[in-house]
Structure formats: structure tokens, C-alpha cells
Amino acid sequence: MRIHRSFMINSSHVTAFSNNEVMLGSHSVPVGRSYKNEFDSFISLFSKKRLL
Fold first, then answer.
1. What are the two backbone dihedrals, phi and then psi, of residue 26, each rounded to the nearest 5 degrees?
2. pTM (2 d.p.)
3. Nearest Cα to Cα of residue 29 among 46, 9, 1
4. Which residues of the chain have pLDDT under 70?
5. Number of domains the chain contains
6. DSSP class per residue in 1-52
7. Domain that holds residue 32
């Protein structure tokens, strides 16, 4: 999943996230403004699947 113009991540390696960054283990990756809505939608969908 692309979260920044310079970064593409594997969503299975996300360990934590906030509004502006994603943690991949001990590495922090910023979430770009133009990718934020797509990332928020993904997180919302992902969290619903984990609850089931």
C-alpha cells in the first residue's frame, strides 16, 4: 500500500499507526497528505475485520 510519494509498505508489517505516521517495527514512516484518506479507509476496514 502506498502511504507517501516516497514510501510503499506491506500492510502485514504495520505494528502501530497514528494520524501522521506508521510504525513498521522500529521504523517510522510518514503518511502523506494525498494518501491519508485511502490509509484511513484501509485502517477502518482492517480494524472491522479484526473484530470479527
1. -100, 5
2. 0.78
3. 9
4. 49-52
5. 1
6. -EEETTEE--GGG--EE-SSEEEETTEEEEPPGGGHHHHHHHHHHHHHHHH-
7. 2-51
